[in-house]
Write a structure and sequence with these properties.
The structure holds 2 protein chains of 2 kinds. By secondary structure, chain A is mainly α. Chain A is about 75% helix and about 0% strand. Chain A has 3 domains: about 260 residues, no CATH class; about 250 residues, no CATH class; about 40 residues. Chain A has a two-stranded antiparallel sheet with strand order 1-2. The N and C termini of chain B lie far apart (about 50 Å). The chains are: A mainly alpha, B mainly alpha. At the A-B interface, helix 23, helix 24, helix 25, helix 26 and helix 27 of A face helix 1, helix 2, helix 3 and helix 4 of B.
Chain lengths: ~775, ~110
């Protein structure tokens, strides 16, 4: 009950934010932050019960016939993620309230931010695959809105579209994967799926389901080769980067992999795919971050690397790896959220976020410098921060990895060395050292801009200092939730002298050395980048999109060329070919030629009609065309008379007279015929016309010789006089039996008359 | 007789299609008119040919067997009248079309977009 209510409240708040923002002024961020804070406290109170092994289920009926419900499934893992989403969300709202104060459309910005929070919260507590998918897509959409917040900038729009296309593509794949996953179970409820985790692995649907779900998770969590949208997303304002693109949304893919690892995991394929993609992304992200100079882009690439690490750990799947995954998830959310917010602060206070133009900021903002440095200590994995425990666990899981142990060790070592190097660089090169001339005088950020980063980093410190008391209760049930059968390993700062500690020390030394010779290190890796990785993925994606658009444009132009007669020609050709095929396949018609049935005068009329039609076609004279039109009309009238259509004949005479008069009146104003078409085109049109005419002829013969069913006219014949009191049955049908049809017909004529009248009136007005 | 009428209808349809495929907008309308005529005739012929026995009730009972079928005739009558409305509208539209664009060539219209 409560989770559903809470998410509804958040959605409501998102809807109300644009209207309330202007009344709340500067306090808006603080007031909106009360909502996620309340949720945070609520989920914290649930924690003891969850740690006792309870699982809270909540369900609302939605689409019964497909087994789709709005279900929520709350165990230790969902709680941990909820705490991250809501905890960081609280600080982000406070921060954004101040940070965005001078920007336009803050109400809208807040609305998107809260919408995102609601959807992300929905993702992590979903208990039904389809519910999860709905919230998943909502995070993509709100991310699109937030990346494109500076919508007047073309690069922001481009980055937003790129992120949306990639995550949207992944979302579609994910939906397919979820449906395949649901088939062997006959339900989308997570609780039912978790009850029999092995069913899908024995099903032939396992392979396609796995691949589709992995595409969804990898696109969302920016795994290679989809990693490039994440640095692009840095076009968003800093609060967005901190919230969506480091701490929460990009972790949705990791969340999904961890959530489904008891069901989909444990196979060779799972292990190989996750290890390879995760490991490669981890190294590539770290490598690409070395040469970046924009603070946010550096952080973005390390985020890519961290996401790779998480995927690698989940793929490894051992007890240590699962422990490491959960701890590192928390570690990363705490320090990366802080770092992004501080990057925003630095840009706001000094006017730049180019690391080469920064330095010596400690004097202007000492408090900010301490907060950021503490977060960087956690990133570098130095005690006593929680980051140290996280890194130790990563090394330990690499040491105990079942396969490719040394490869993983080397990759982890390299990545962590780069992290140490970047920590030194982001701290020393920004806050100490040479102080360049700033465009505006930097000063300490406001309280609202510092409180979030400060509390996050404090959390990182306290969790590191008191792992038994604080970190274990927070993460223990999360670990058992995603790796059943594995217990949480005890967390402590001092592990004794072992391989992991040795590696940690080596990492530190290597990192410091890299920083000492940073000019050489950066220059060298930049050289390799230019030489071997000159192709940028983002540019490749953009040009692929452009090529696709061009292709669709030419394709559309070919099909929708704008020439009505070629549309008609297509329709006629296709229709005649299809009908001729059908005629070919039906039995031939048997015709008896009986010349006594052919009165000579009538035959003469028919010959006249044919001659008139043909002359209308070939004639160069408009007058002949008009005469032909009249001849055909009156010829048909005679046919009506000859075969008992008296009323038809009377109507036809009047209509025909009117039509010829009207045609003459219009033709009077038009220029004479000109030769527009080449002989070839005429031949081609003639062929099409002949095809259509001939199949219509055959159809008439078929229609005229077959009688299907009993005509319903007998009813009219019997009741026309006795009930409707009219002897002329055709007239009785029109004015009595089908009176409403006739009313519709009169309406059509009235509308046509109105149209004609207004067209002629309009002409006169234009002339005067 | 059916065969001859079928030929007439076929010729009418063929000429209508040929005229519809022309570039001159007046010929297009002419094709539309022919198409209407051809379809009316098609319906009329398909409902069966009855010579000299219109659907009138002369006596009160017992004579309906050989009478012409009144229902198709009623439908054709509706079609003829609506056809008149459509044609009249189209003709005036052509008139307006020409007075605005000063051309009767449909290709020139799409090139001038």
């Amino acid at each position: 009950m409560t989770t559903g209510l809470f998410i509804t409240l958040l959605l409501l708040l998102s809807f109300l934010a644009p209207f309330t923002r202007k009344y709340l002024r500067g306090a808006a961020g603080w007031i909106y932050a009360i909502f996620p804070l309340a949720g945070l406290i609520y989920y914290l109170t649930l924690l003891p019960a969850i740690n006792d092994g309870r699982i809270i289920l909540e369900s609302y009926r939605w689409i019964d016939i497909y087994g789709i419900n709005f279900s929520f499934y709350i165990d230790g893992f969902s709680i941990l993620f909820s705490l991250i989403v809501l905890g960081i969300g609280t600080f982000i709202l406070i921060y954004a309230g101040k940070y965005m104060q001078t920007y336009p459309m803050q109400g809208r910005f807040m609305a998107y931010l809260i919408l995102f929070m609601a959807s992300m919260q929905g993702v992590v507590v979903s208990g039904n695959l389809i519910t999860l998918f709905v919230f998943w897509e909502l995070t993509s959409i709100s991310s699109y809105m937030l990346i494109g917040y500076y919508h007047e900038k073309p690069e922001a729009r481009m980055a937003a579209l790129q992120a949306l296309l990639i995550t949207g593509f992944g979302g579609l794949a994910l939906l397919g994967g979820f449906i395949l996953l649901g088939i062997p179970y006959g339900t989308y409820e997570l609780s039912a799926i978790f009850a029999n985790p092995d069913v899908i692995k024995q099903s032939p649907l396992y392979l396609p389901a796995l691949i589709l779900i992995l595409i969804g998770a990898f696109t969302k969590s920016a795994q290679f080769p989809f990693h490039f949208w994440l640095p692009g997303a840095m076009a968003a304002p800093s609060p967005v980067s901190a919230f969506l693109h480091s701490a929460t949304m990009v972790k949705a893919g990791v969340f999904l992999l961890a959530r489904l690892s008891p069901v989909m995991g444990g196979t060779e394929l799972w292990h190989v795919l996750l290890t390879v993609f995760g490991g490669f992304t981890m190294v590539a992200g770290a490598w690409l971050s070395i040469t970046q100079t924009d603070l946010k882009r550096i952080l973005a690439y390390t985020t890519v690397s961290a996401l790779g690490t998480l995927v690698l750990l989940i793929g490894t799947g051992t007890q240590y790896a699962m422990n490491a995954a959960i701890i590192f998830l928390l570690v990363h959310a705490l320090y990366k959220g802080t770092l992004f917010l501080m990057a925003g602060n630095i840009e706001k206070m000094s006017g730049t976020r180019d690391i080469n133009k920064l330095g010596g900021l400690y004097k202007s903002m000492p408090f900010a410098a301490i907060i950021m440095t503490l977060a960087l200590v956690s990133m570098a994995g130095i005690p006593p921060m929680l980051g140290f425990i996280g890194k130790e666990l990563i090394y330990e899981s690499a040491v105990f990895a079942p396969t490719a142990k040394y490869l993983i060790l080397i990759a982890a070592f390299f990545t962590n060395t780069v992290l140490v190097f970047l920590s030194l660089r982001l701290s020393l090169d920004v806050f100490w050292g040479h102080r360049p001339a700033y465009t505006k005088q930097p000063y300490e950020p406001y309280f609202a801009l510092l409180v979030g980063p400060f509390l996050l980093v404090l959390g990182s410190l306290l969790l590191g200092l008191f792992p038994k008391m604080l970190a274990e209760p927070l993460t223990g049930s999360a670990i058992t939730a995603i790796s059943p059968g594995h217990d949480a390993v005890g967390l402590k700062l001092w592990h004794g002298l072992n391989m992991a500690l040795l590696l940690s020390i080596l990492t530190l030394i290597a990192g410091v050395l890299a920083y000492r010779f940073k000019v050489v290190f950066i220059g060298y890796s930049g050289g390799i980048n230019v030489r071997y990785f000159a192709r940028e993925f983002a540019k490749g994606f953009t040009s692929a999109m452009d090529a696709f658009l061009l292709y669709t444009k030419t394709q559309t132009k070919r099909i929708q060329h704008g020439y009505h007669r070629y549309y008609l020609m297509t329709v006629f050709t296709v229709a005649s070919v299809l009908v001729w095929v059908m005629i070919w396949r039906t039995d031939p018609i048997v015709l008896e030629l009986n010349f006594s049935e052919m009165p000579l005068n009538l035959v003469a009329v028919l010959v006249l009609i044919v001659a008139a039609a043909l002359s209308a076609v070939v004639s160069h004279s408009r007058v002949i065309a008009l005469i032909a039109m009249g001849v055909i009309g009156f010829g048909i009238t005679i046919i009506f008379i000859a075969y008992s259509g008296v009323d038809l004949a009377i109507t036809m005479v009047m209509v025909e007279v009117l039509m010829v008069i009207l045609a003459v009146a219009v033709l009077y104003h038009l220029p004479g015929y000109q030769k527009y078409s080449e002989t070839g085109a005429r031949m081609r049109d003639g062929l099409v016309a002949a095809l259509v005419g001939s199949f219509m002829m055959v159809l008439v013969l078929h229609a005229g010789t077959s009688q299907m069913g009993v005509p319903i006219s007998d009813f009219f014949k019997e009741t026309s006089y006795t009930e409707a009191f009219g002897r002329n049955i055709v007239n009785v049908i029109l004015v009595d039996y089908r009176a409403l049809d006739t009313l519709g017909e009169i309406t059509v004529i009235a509308i046509a008359a109105l149209g004609i009248f207004s067209m002629i009136k309009l002409t006169k007005k234009v002339k005067s | 007789m059916l065969l001859l009428l079928a030929v007439v209808i076929g010729v009418l349809y063929g000429s209508a299609v040929y005229l519809l495929l022309r570039r001159n907008i007046f010929k297009l309308i002419l094709g539309l008119i022919f198409l209407g005529h051809a379809t009316n005739l098609l319906l009329f012929v398909a409902s069966g040919l009855t010579s000299g026995y219109p659907a009138f009730i002369r006596f009160v009972t017992g004579e309906s067997e050989s009478m012409a079928d009144p229902l198709p005739q009623a439908l054709i009558l509706t079609a003829i009248v609506i056809g008149l409305g459509v044609t009249a509208f189209a003709l005036v539209l052509v008139y307006r079309f020409y007075s605005v664009t000063k051309t009767v060539d449909l290709d020139e219209l799409s090139e001038n977009e």
